[in-house]
Model the fold of this input.
Amino acid sequence: MVKIATYASHSALQILKGAKDEGFETIAFGKSRVRPLYTKYFPVADYFLEGEYPEEELLKLDAIVIPTGSFVAHLGIELVERMRVPYFGNKKVLRWESDRNLERKWLEEAKLKLPRVYEDPDEIDAPVIVKPHGAKGGRGYFIAKDSRDFWEKAERFLGIKDKEDLKSVQIQEYIVGVPVYPHYFYSKIREELELMSIDRRYESNVDAIGRIPSKDQLELDLDVTYTVIGNIPIVLRESLLMDVIEAGERVVKASEKLMGGLWGPFCLEGVFTPDLNFVVFEISARIVAGTNLFINGSPYTWLKYGEPMSTGRRIAREIKIAIEEDKLDEVVT
Ligand code: AMP
Ligand code: AMP
Done:
């Protein structure tokens, strides 16, 4: 009997709870310290295996691994690509997502509104956000107001002095607007996109700076950082819902053309500007932790399901339907 497994962090509580609600046995694997979190304080895991990725045990238990940001970050893309335990989703998206140039090509193909990217820092003529490759969760990003400011900070923060070394950073136009992160689920079996929920991130210190009077902000000479601490739920103005739904549909179409499809959960990360444009700066091609707000369902899943439906539970339901219809091979890679 197939069991649902995931790495013990990020959104594992939600994924395993959802799997149990759909009648599966569950496995968490990871650091021994967190065993009680998944077996005692929140008893969602029937098995707890120690280790980053105990492949042989997972194979023996007939596990399907649900990838999360933590799993991919801890294992690294090469290992994930080579893993033998069935993986829910399309592994081909990993390359597209982890390379900022490919990711941009993907989002362009989907005809999303994107921030301008500056190839040459000497052309910076508006505020920019600078993203070193591999910077996690916004840690290591900085903002610059013009090219002089850019070069000064690039040297201070990254030790970069000339253009040769700039391959490792992307310089994006800084979009002033409110952050909105819609969570989607694309069912490959039903060929249907669902809007699951929406969050915004609670980021330190950028969400703290507004608590300091502007006079003091200037005196303190603060630099902003974007380290994720938690998530805040959002319901969107109803007249904007079609905008995010259509953006999701176009991403699924573009994925079919570029890498053989994107199925299961994914998230677009962007901001809504004052003139109501949804500008997207990133895609996460798997469950995002912002869905943890909605373990008991969101306003949107309530409209569709009329029963508590989290993204984690939706994944398990997809696997259940795939098994019933003898299509499991279509949703795991
Ligand atoms: P962790 O297992 O908490 O170290 O998280 C692994 C990765 O997932 C990190 O790169 C985080 O940036 C991302 N992540 C973890 N929790 C959240 C969250 N609540 N919201 C957004 N991203 C998150
Ligand atoms: P990311 O790692 O791309 O998800 O970005 C981390 C955080 O930086 C986001 O949650 C936003 O708060 C902020 N951010 C990223 N890109 C932009 C942008 N182009 N304009 C404004 N804010 C951004």
Residues 113 and 277 are 8 Å apart (CA to CA). The domain at 117-173 is CATH 3.30.1490.20 (Dna Ligase; domain 1).
